Amino acid sequence: MRSFDYLQPSTLGEATAHLRSGTEIRLLAGGMTLLPTIKQRLAAPDALVDLAGVPALTGIEDEGCSLLVGAMARHAAVAASPLVRSRIPALADLAAGIGDPAVRNRGTIGGSLANNDPAADYPAAVLGLGATIVTSEREIAADDFFLGLFETALGAEEIITAIRFPVPRAAAYVKFKAPASRYALVGVFVAQTAEGVRVAVTGAGPAVFRVPAMEEALAADFTPSAVAAIGIDADDLNSDIHAEAGYRAHLVTVMAKRAVAAAAKGF
């Protein structure tokens, strides 16, 4: 593995300055994807900027109608937070089901979103709840953030600082996970929000996406039967050694029904 500089800023300003100091500078949040990528020699940064020492990027705050979750909040912290469990239990449950204990105690929500793995769990919650990604430069609506496979709207010198989650009336996340990695073959997040019903799917396609037909049906009748007959086109879905596109399309409807049933219990 090639050598690199290891930088430990204590403020967001220092982190931003480091990021702007060269072309091969990478941010280190949890490192769940970045470090293995470097070890496999698929990336060779000149320096890593570790965000773990920036206090402004941690913490979970109650803003009344929303929760503000710091970008460096570990999955385990989100899962165990009494505030998250009381206001958005579906988000806590999602965090509790990510990977294994080692991943949950190192991985961060900001790192997951910046990486935008097509099978990651957090993108489903962010898109399903209509959250806002707060960065060092602006605020980005969830609908505008996820652009494609490992691609987001983040600029080259932009750092995620927090995520603002609206508190829904009801919500649930259900996934069919790969037994070894626990990544979602298909995961569906369903939420009743102030803006209406939202359905977000992860694991099935190149990036997380919404299902308008299901949202419309659930707005009229928030029951599993409302989405039971709504199929998903398999043409643009992922097909790999874990599951073919047609099977993933089938799972979207199955997981959506289960998510609606789980969310309805919160009424």
UniProtKB/TrEMBL annotation:
Residues 1-170 form the FAD-binding PCMH-type domain. Transmembrane segments: none annotated. PANTHER family: XANTHINE DEHYDROGENASE SUBUNIT C-RELATED (PTHR42659:SF2). Pfam families: FAD_binding_5. It comes from Labrys monachus. SUPFAM superfamilies: CO dehydrogenase flavoprotein C-terminal domain-like (SSF55447), FAD-binding/transporter-associated domain-like (SSF56176). Gene3D superfamilies: 3.30.465.10, CO dehydrogenase flavoprotein, C-terminal domain, Uridine Diphospho-n-acetylenolpyruvylglucosamine Reductase, domain 2. It comes from the Bacteria. This is Carbon-monoxide dehydrogenase medium subunit. The lineage of its organism: Bacteria, Pseudomonadati, Pseudomonadota, Alphaproteobacteria, Hyphomicrobiales. It is an enzyme of class 1 (oxidoreductase).
